[in-house]
Structure formats: structure tokens, C-alpha cells
Amino acid sequence: MISACLEIIGLGLSVSGTLLVMVACGLPMWKVSAFIEGNIVVAQNIWDGLWMSCVVQSTGQMQCKMHDSVLALTTDLQTARALTVISAVLGVQALMITIAGAQCTNCISKESIKAKVVNVGGVIYIIAGLFVLVPLCWMANNIISDFYDPQVPYAKKREIGAALYVGWAASAMLLVGGVILCFSRPADEKSSYPLKYVPPPMKSVSVNGDYDKRNYV
User: Fold this and answer.
1) Rounded to whole angstroms, how far apart are CA atoms 46 and 156?
2) Is residue 81 within 8 Å of residue 49, measured between CB atoms?
3) Contact 12, 177 (CB under 8 A)
4) Of 71, 84, 91, 67, the residue nearest 139 (C-alpha)
5) How many C-beta atoms surround the C-beta of residue 170 within 10 A?
6) Which residues, listed in sequence order, are joined to residue 64 by a DSSP beta bridge?
7) From edge to edge, which strands make up the β-sheet containing 158-160?
8) Among residues 142, 162, 139, 160, which one has the least CA distance to residue 152?
9) Which of 12, 103, 157, 174 is geometrically suited to a Cys-Cys bond with 34, CB 3.0 to 4.6 A?
């Protein structure tokens, strides 16, 4: 019962983390304009994402443009694209593997093998969480470094966007959910070896209907 509850909790966190990874991948708010010094009275807000850049006017009108060339992007954006997509794909694969080994399914008959399959799904979720965590921390480090760099003009300074916070939440859910799945059902679980009832031996009866004297001590 406890292992089943842990499986549900771990799988719920991991699936939520995978969905948040997809949301963070599509959001254009990885880098946003920093309103500092003389840049505080500008009439537009610039968003930079993995796939597009958007300009939001003070009137509420927004215009977005897809990135023309992948090679023209910075190294951190190219890496974030690849690792975020890989993380989302790993999350989907881990979901199928975990469902195959879950207690509520009959895809696998042996309980010991099902436990190992669930553990493998948890490991894949942990890897997916690390894959999305690396570009997030790299991007945040570059944003903070440029923000405090005096050689970078104020108009080009950026701040951490909402997509990074969504990605950090997704990474935390994937890591926690993966760890819970890894420890929800140990491979040497006692239930993997069901006990069998062995009936006691029958006492022999003599030809005349009496019990054999050998049954008595």
C-alpha cells in the first residue's frame, strides 16, 4: 500500500515536471529587458526565448519573430534548445516505462521485474531533471554576469525571465519525483516471493482401519 502511494506521488510529480519543461521550452520569456538607469522610460519590453524574440509595446501590442538561424544564436541558447528538448523526450519515455512497471498495470507479470522497471523510470526522470537544470543555470549565470558588466550597455542588459523560474520548478519536480520512484519499490521486495502453503503429510491407515502404530511415539 505504501509503495503504491509512493508510486502515485512520484509519477504525479514527474509528469507535472515534464509538462512544465515543455511550457518553459515554448515560453519566449527566458530573457527580459532590464529597466535601469536611463532605460527606465522606454516604451517597449523585449523578450528573448529559445525559439523567438518578442517586443511588447506599452500599448499592449506584441510582435514576435522566430529566430532566423540556429547558428546565429549564442552558445547558451543553442545548448538550452537541445537539452530542453532532450529532457522533454526523456520525460515522455520515462512515463511509458514507469506505467509498464506500475502496480496498477499487468504489462509485466513478475513483481521483481516490475519493481526494477519502475526504478529505471525514476532514474530516467532524474536524468531529465539534470538535463533541464544545466541550461537554466548557465543562462541565469550569463544574464547576471552581463547585468553587472559595466561594458554592456544598459539597453542590452537583461533580467531573468519567467521561463527560467518555470524551468527550475520543473527540474525540482523531476528530481524529487525520480528519487521517490527509485525508492518506492526496492527490487528485493518481500512481496516478490509469495509464500506457498504446504499441507501436512497424511497419516497412514492400516488395513483394519486403525492408525498405523508408527504414527505414535
Assistant:
1) 10
2) no
3) yes
4) 84
5) 29
6) 54
7) 62-66, 52-57, 44-48, 31-33, 158-160
8) 142
9) 157
C-alpha dihedral sign at 24, 25, 27, 32: positive
Question: Over the stretch 26-85, which tens digit does the pLDDT of each residue have?
Answer: 998 898 887 766 555 566 788 888 888 888 887 778 888 888 887 778 888 888 999 999
Amino acid present at 126: I
Please give the model's pTM, rounded to 2 decimal places: 0.78
Rounded to whole angstroms, the Cα distance separating 12 from 80 reads 25
Angle at 63 between CA 159 and CA 17, to 5 degrees: 55
As a whole number of angstroms, the distance between CA 81 and CA 90 comes to 14
- Cell readout for 105 is 498495470
Q: Where are the beta strands (DSSP E) in the chain?
A: 31-33, 44-48, 52-57, 62-66, 158-160
Give the integer Cα–Cα distance in Å for 130 and 14: 13
- Grid cell 525514476 in the structure block, residue: 122
Q: Which amino acid is present at 154?
A: Y
Q: What is the tens place of the pLDDT at every residue in 112-169?
A: 888 888 899 999 999 999 999 999 999 999 989 988 888 887 777 888 989 999 999 9
Could you give the CA distance from residue 186 to residue 109 in angstroms, rounded to a whole number?
Answer: 16
- Beta-strand ranges (E) seen in 106-216 are 158-160
Let me know: does 122 contact 181? Beta carbons within 8 Å.
Answer: yes
- Between CA 130 and CA 84 the distance in angstroms is 10
